[in-house]
Hints:
Layout: H1 2-21, E1 25-41, E2 47-63, E3 67-74, E4 81-89, E5 97-104, H2 109-112, E6 133-143, E7 147-155, E8 171-183, E9 186-197, E10 204-208, E11 219-223, E12 227-241, E13 244-259, E14 265-280, E15 288-290, E16 294-295, E17 311-323, E18 327-341, E19 344-356, E20 367-380
Antiparallel strand pairs: 1-2, 1-20, 2-3, 3-4, 4-5, 5-6, 6-7, 7-8, 8-9, 9-12, 10-11, 12-13, 13-14, 14-17, 15-16, 17-18, 18-19, 19-20
Amino acid sequence: MKKTILALSVTLLTFINVSAQSPVKDIKFGGRIMYDMAVWGDSTMDNAGTEFRRVRLYSSGTMYSNVKYKLQLDFANGDIAFKDIFIELNKLPIQGNLRIGHFKEPFRLEALTSSKYITFMERGLPIALSPERNTGAMYHTTFGDRLSFQTGIFRESDAFGNDKTANNNVNITTRVTYLAMNDRNKLLHLGVANSRRKNNDKYYGFSSRAENHLGPKLMNIEFINQVKDVNIIASEITYVNGSLSLQGEALQTTINTEIGQWNTPNTHQIMSYYGQVSYFLTGENRSYKNSLAGFGRVKPNNNYGENGWGALEIAVRFSAIDFKENGSLEDITFGLNWYLNPNTRMMFNYVMGERTNGSELDNESGITSENAIMMRVQLDF
């Protein structure tokens, strides 16, 4: 409790102090609340739970026209964690921007899009294998209105952005995107990315639920004391035509382990991917911000209570993790989003997950099924 009060005080004082002292200021202060409810299980669905999925406060802005910052803290589950904590230098002698601190590595459109604006309550299964926030430095720039480039060097960090034993611990992540079409309500976004990763402990592992954060982990993979390095290649595509949106991404993760039998390197490959389609029944469309931030806020044509009912969006997604050595995890998720106004949304998801082969939860047939009915009430300001 004391830590929570201290963090809130620091955030508020920072906002007030910067606003008072900066002669050239563009300062913002906001946050988000996401409250989830779910029931899940096999055919009986006899589990139920609720949680505050995200409770965040942030301050961001620009000082003296060429220095940006962001300070974002999360208080979900009664814990405090750093999210985006960075300083960014603009108007460099060379074209581009330099960001230093704790933030998302430039990898995958869905991962870079804020949780406030993603189509489903949870990101697709590939998020389990994707690098997210870490501490490091990133250079990013755009060439014209279509081509963007981002590259950075990162360290594996804890919830407070620290990595106090960083020997030989370097992750290099690079992403290139191309906006092939951006004409009024039509958009075509293409991108590729690569991340080369290495840590001190020669360890690599991941776990995944069935796109239900309250549910159990159905897949848990670990390589202990044997990993030389990991390489992840990703591709992304999004097409928007008015109210219709199509999006898909695919990842290939290659784990290189120590020299094995016959003096040959051992390699293990994991494929993960998703494809989704969404449609606004009330005529709105997804708004594209930029390559590094992905998609942004949906603005209903008529807000709820202003002679209207807000915006309604329906969506479906298939996603999978395929690890031939240890089985697979697949999900089909149906979604309904009700945007009461640009800042308030209610989300309804129905998830059908299936884990095959190798899971500790497998039944006699080698298949574990989990279905979930989920609801979220979301507000951001």
